[in-house]
Amino acid sequence: MPPETILVFILVYVLVVLLSATKMLPMSVAALIGALLTAWFGLQYEVFTYDEAMGFIGNNINLILLLIGIMVVVEVADRGGLFRLGALYSIKMAKGNPRVLFITLCIIAATVSMFLSDPTAILLIAAAAITITKILDYDPVPFFISATIMVNLGGTSTLIGSVSNMIIGVNTGLSFNDFIGYLAVAEIILWALTILVLYCIFKSRLREKRTPPTYNPWESVQNKKLFWRSTIILCLLIVLFVLSDILSVGPEAVALGCAVLALAVSEIDPAEIFKRMDWETIFFLTGFLFVVGGLEKTGFLGILSTQLFHFAGGSLFLATLMVLWSSGLASTIVSNMAVALTFTPIILARALGSFELARMGCALALGTNLGGAATPFSGSVVIMALGAMKKEGIDLDFSEFTKVGFITTFIQLAFATVYITVRFGIGG
Amino acid sequence: MAAIFGVISIVVPPLVEGTTVPGINVKGSFLLWVCFILVTLIFAIRALSDSLALADVLTDIFLRRLGAKKDRSLKRVGRDAIYIIVTILLASAFIPFLSAVAEIGTMLAGAASLIALFLIIVLIYDVGRILYRTVEAKAETLSDRLVKLARRNRKKKG
Q: What band does B68 get if pLDDT is binned at 50, 70 and 90?
């Protein structure tokens, strides 16, 4: 492939990243422009045929279906009031103690984010944080910043916890159980470590205890029939994910099956559900799959893969750590979905055994998830949290968030390095 | 003026070929050439600094027409980078089609390349200008801090 042709495809990739990072265009539009340019240049320079171009989407249709299925199930569960009820119960248990409330909110944020998409989770948690801090007259900044960081962290160890995990899982063959098996311990320790760091940072701002108002959390559930049905379907989804290896069914089939069931039994107008789905993410993913597919066809990602292993001196362990840190640092600027989509073919370009592939996949999952809340530009979750704060008249200084975000991200990545070393060993 | 003296430095010295300046024993043609080149350089430097000021104004007007805001932030550097990439990609996409046009194809492609090159130079100039000002501002802040620190230390010692 002539270097000029490769350069054109690299420029298309950089253009999409810059358009998304500077927010000059919505990220879905940026990715679709990238897809259009990739198709144009790919066919013009005969890098791929029309059929091969369609394969960029076709070969990844299971990823898109998995995403859509999860979104439908979670949307129905959210409308049923499951997550709101859980949040209200936990807050009630804190009994107005700001420190207990702070830790409780952090745990709820991470837990809710294991199932909900990060933007939806942060909207829910932000609403809860605003209500609490207003009623009890607490400083809202520690609650907001910590909830944002914990929402980003939640779901690192599950296949459905983040879109980047779905990308990695579908492409590397890591199942729901693999994710839990390899990363659950890491996530639990990361939660504790991050809460501890955040608590130390904000301790001085969490002082006075106030009496909370009495309320019944169940009052937030408007339709109990829907609540129970959606809760059962969500539990069914998780059980089927766990059993998917035994049943020899792909995660996308499980997600779609449960989505159809949820739509059938929820008695909600499907148009309402579809309207509230995160189409921005779906279109971004579709467009960016095309951009990365084009770049892969030029052979550039293969070259990057070779260089990565060359820099690591042929050591798979060092290459894994390089993937962890480079994906983590890249995710502080670029959307972690884009980072996952770019790194997956780089990893797959090397013929790795299942153990090495799992190690690489876990490093990438940790890197892409942990880097997502370091700066206000890292991802949509931070921007939405800051937007919610601004709406409430709280103008948070960007540098204050960045300071806390960078400290926690660095500590999390440092821990991830130790975890990967201990969990998988330094061999290879 | 720089251009005129440049031409003079080529044309005039050969006219006094063969003469030597008494006292310093240097060839007349060489001495004249050195003098004209010096004058040319002085005018060229002045012209360059004037053209930089003019380029500043022209770049501002041009970029404002393109829709760029007046801010001088690093975000604008990102936007300029986007414009540069878009220009390169558009040129790469359309120049092959332009050159395929019968008879005037080569001319059209050449013109398109020149326009693209002009746009890229203007944008790169804008990027350089913003980065220079940013670094300059940071350096000033740093030097101010160092001066304050030095004064504070001197007071403590005093």
A: low
B120 and B86 assigned to the same domain: yes
pLDDT at A198 over 90: yes
Among B75, B85, B92, whose Cβ lies nearest the Cβ of A22?
B75
Q: What percent of chain B is modeled with pLDDT above 90?
A: 15
What tens digit of pLDDT does each residue of A82-125 get?
A: 877 877 777 777 777 888 888 988 998 898 888 776 777 787 78
Enumerate the residues of chain B whose CB falls inside 8 A of the CB of residue A44. 93, 96
Let me know whether B79 and B110 are in one domain.
yes
Task: Find which of B80, B85, B123, B127 to mutate to test the A interface (most A CBs within 10 Å of its CB).
Answer: B85
In this complex, which of B78, B81, B89 lies closest to A12 when CB atoms are compared? B89
Same structural domain for residues B145 and B74?
yes
Measured CA to CA, the distance from residue A198 to residue A102 in angstroms comes to: 10
Residues 6+ apart with CB under 8 A from A377: A21, A332, A333, A383
Q: How many domains does chain B have?
A: 2
Kindly state whether residues B26 and B87 are assigned to the same domain: no
Write down the pTM of the prediction: 0.76
CA distance A240 to chain B (A): 45
Domain membership of residue B100 (yes or no) is yes
Q: Is the Cβ pair A15, B82 closer than 8 Å?
A: yes
Task: Report which of A359, A344, A361 is spatially closest to residue A428, judged by C-alpha positions.
Answer: A359
Cα–Cα nearest to B122, from B48, B66, B44, B45: B66
Mean pLDDT, range B150-156, rounded to an integer: 85
ipTM for the complex shown? 0.73
CA distance A8 to chain B (A): 7
Phi-psi region of B69 (alpha: psi -120 to 50; beta: other; left: phi over 0): beta
The residue segments making up the domain with residue B109 are: 68-158
